[in-house]
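[job 0412] stage=complex_fold ligand=protoporphyrin IX containing FE status=START
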Amino acid sequence: MVTMDMPLLANILGLLALFSYIATLLPTILRIVLPSTKQTDIPRWLLKNRRLMGIIAFFFTLGHAFLYVTKRNFDFFDLKTFLIYVQGVTPFTIFTLLAITSNDWSVKKLKKKWKQLHQLTYFAMFLLTWHIWAKMSGHWTYLTPVGIVAITGIIVLFLIRLWIEHQDKQQKTNRKASKA
Ligand code: HEM
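[job 0412] stage=complex_fold status=DONE, emitting structure tokens
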């Protein structure tokens, strides 16, 4: 019989961090994969609040990690501990960098590098899937299936977005070639 644990505050904060992170990915994905959502204004609202969502994701992660680090007395300078939690610490580091540079000054100052830095957000998606699987295997809480469905769903939508963008690019090249 499958038993599930009751989620603790740290688990709830982890899931809220995941949802707010996913909200930062949705505007571009919805515009390309589900253009009909434009009529609902949801993509426009998400785009307008993307920076805020990113900073909210950072603070939820800070609370989540803080509760585990203090409760389990982690020493991230110990290589073994770092490797056990690398799939949590790395997205956390990415979120910190993105939160710090989520302002107009950084956009102007970093120019092209700002866009490159913010591409790291897509790497976090795959790390977080590994994080949830690795940390929750054998003792799911009631939140675990929700987290797994959410992160898998956004990865599938992201891959469809990449595929559509690739198709568009190819069509453009073919059109150019046929005109030449
Ligand atoms: C320093 C960084 C991090 C540490 C130390 C950490 C620690 C943990 C630990 C120990 C668990 C297992 C909890 C349990 O056994 O019940 C866990 C689960 C989880 N973490 Fe993290 N985490 C980190 C970063 C993140 C980030 C960046 C996110 C999301 C944006 C996140 C989202 C989650 C989620 C959704 C779960 C599963 C909760 C559940 O299914 O109940 N974590 N984390």
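Residues 144-179 form the longest helix (36 residues).
[job 0412] exit 0
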